[in-house]
Amino acid sequence: MINPKLTMAIIGGLAMVLLVEPGAQAQQDNQLNPHSNAKSQVYPKHSVRQKQATRPRQDHATKQNAAQDTRVAEATRTESAKQSHRLILQVNSNEPAMMNLTLNNATNVAQYYRDHGEPVSIEIVTFGPGLHMLRDDTSPVKPRIEVLAMSNPEISFKACGNTQENMRKAENKDINLIPQAAVVKSGVVRVMELQEQGWSYVKP
Q: According to a count of CB atoms within 10 Å of the terminal CB, is the N or C end of the chain lower?
């Protein structure tokens, strides 16, 4: 007669073998073929190709930015080379030779920068006895200024208002100026302010 306890132990042992065997078999298969799951750990081939394709585009963009920076730098240098030049010429003497020298200097400077294609502004400022240069009744260079002003618009003429008023009082008459002249409050202050703005100053 079969012992009931022995029968139950045998049945339980068989059940444990059936439950454990599939997992054990899978573990054994993995040990025999360690590369069986390699596919799950490999990046898709298209990802590698995409990274390789992205890198040349990034390099191209970097080269484009560098080229653009170079063009901007060259344009800046060109613009600096063609910056506007500004010159003050002062006349405070009632001497025809001094007045003609001033006009010579102004004409030469204007022609120089015109030939180089660079802009220039020239302002002739008169005060004190130099105001006679721009007086309609006493200017020894009146005809020359008329001609020069027509061909050299970059040259302008300023007359000191303080000097004009002092002459009016001293001579007891209005002091008329040539049409090319414009009045400023003070010739000396005008020269100072232009210098403070970066204008070059020359006294003939």
A: N
